[in-house]
Amino acid sequence: MKNDNTKQVDCQTVREELPTLLYDELDGESRQLIEQHVEACQQCRDELEGFRRTLRLLDSWSVEAPETAEPFKTHSSVESRLPIRLRPVLVGAAAAVIVFAILGWVGTDWQYADGQLVVTLGRGSMSASYLGQDLNTAVPMLRAVAREEADIRCNSLLTVIQENLVEFERQQEERRLALVGAVDVRRDEDWRHQMVMFQALAGGLEREVRYTNRALDDLWTHLSQENPAISRKNELN
Amino acid sequence: MNDLTDAELVQRFRRGDKGAFSPLARRWEGKAYSLAYRLTLDAAESDDIKQTALMRAFKGLAEFNGKASFSTWFHRIVVNLCRDRMRSRRVRDRVLGEQTGDIRGEGRFAQSACRAGERAETSSRVAQAVASLPTAVREVVVMRHYQDLPFARIAEILDAPVSTVKSRMAQGLRLLQEQLKDVAE
Q1: Does pLDDT of A122 surpass 80?
Q2: Residue extents of the structural domains in chain B
Q3: Residue A160 contacts B where some CB pair is shorter than 8 Å
Q4: Is B51's CB within 8 Å of A66's CB?
Q5: Which of B54, B59, B145 sits opposite A72 (nearest CB)?
Q6: Helical ranges in A28-86 per DSSP H
Q7: What interface predicted TM-score (ipTM) does this complex get?
Q8: Which of A44, A54, B90, B101 has its CA 20 to 30 A from that of A178?
Q9: Does B6-179 carry CATH code 3.30.230.10?
């Protein structure tokens, strides 16, 4: 301590607070106290000046994200991290989802009575009904609804895929850290594990598609029996 | 949606609007990259850390309790990832060094620091000086000076008392001052 003005606060305390002063994080009273001390204490003033100079030097180091840095995209970023061997599996799963989107609806209820066709498609809030005579009108409408429902299912499935991938990535990271001392981190084993998981997922999608196809076949068989004028060709158009 | 606050976007996301994550990701990915780069000095690793942090945030946001701000929570994810990578890199360097009879004690980090600074002498020296700081000190210096986070926020991120954080900053500035004393401004 140099004189009476600096009695209220010791040099050690002031020096620890100098960064707070430099980054303007001190409230009025503390600031005044520290500034008064620095004013009167040559050593603390020197330290403050040294810090100021250091901070100016730190400013010379700028970092910008390189142009090649990928922007965040939940789906593509996950896919791009997959081992090349896994990508066809993901593509297969996506293809199954698309097939499902085109073909699929589950939960179809319908009646044909008094020349009126009543078809209810979907479940709960996603359900839609058609009442009329003209199957050619019904089919596009049902397709649109089916597509909408399938989109939702598709997004839901993609979320599942994505969450699985995040989990895989976490597991992979844990293994990597555990095995990091070795040059060979047994990636093949991780990839095989992921491959099995994806095959299981793709198998589930395929089963859904088969189920949907059966539901469609049943519907058309029944419609054709009730009204021979309705042909499968119309549906396909 | 870009003019919504982090808290509002988080709320939307938790109500099921997954699209609310995109503005959050755009807002924070650059900061995540620069924080990771300054802590690891490895561009590829930093990009990977950024992506992993965003993926973890995306996955964990539904369970995010909101006690801390999104910024604090997200920075914590990035810092923890950096620590993991740095730890595994040190082990790897040591193992590889032993296997190849490599006597370079500084490891890849210091080498990266040299590469990072090839563009400008002062910048290079600063990068090397920051890289040489002890990890706990380096984290505070980088977050306070380059990420512009207040000491209280840094304390939250690191789960440390504010006084400790301030003390590490002062220690960091002294070490940097010593290392950079012959560098012209």
Answers
A1: no
A2: 6-179
A3: no
A4: no
A5: B54
A6: 28-40, 42-58, 74-81
A7: 0.81
A8: B101
A9: no
Nearest chain B residue to A155, by CA: B18
The answer to whether the Cβ–Cβ distance between A23 and B123 falls below 8 Å is no
Q: What is the pLDDT along chain B (185 residues), one digit of tens a residue?
A: 678 899 999 888 888 887 888 888 888 989 999 999 999 988 888 888 988 888 888 888 877 877 889 999 999 999 999 998 888 777 666 655 544 433 333 444 555 555 554 446 888 889 989 999 999 999 999 999 999 999 999 999 999 999 999 999 999 999 999 999 888 76
Which amino acid belongs to residue A72?
F
What DSSP letter does each residue of A172-226 carry, written as one string? HHHHHHHTTTSS---HHHHHHHHHHHHHHHHHHHHHHHHHHHHHHHHHHHHHHHH
Q: Do A58 and B130 touch (CB under 8 A)?
A: yes
A142 close to A131: Cβ distance less than 8 angstroms: no
B113 CB near a chain A CB, below 8 Å? Answer: no
Q: pLDDT tens-digit profile of A88-113?
A: 555 555 555 554 444 444 455 666 66
The 3-state DSSP class for residue A26 equals coil
pLDDT greater than 70 at residue A38: yes
A-chain residue closest to B21, CA distance: A74
Structure-token match 């700028």, residue found: A62
Nearest CA-CA distance, residue A41 and chain B, Å: 18
Size of interface A-B (CB pairs under 8 A): 118
Query: Residue type for B80, please?
Result: N
Helix, strand, coil % (nearest 5) of chain A?
70, 5, 25
> Which of B170, B152, B68, B161 lies closest to A26 in space, CA to CA?
B152
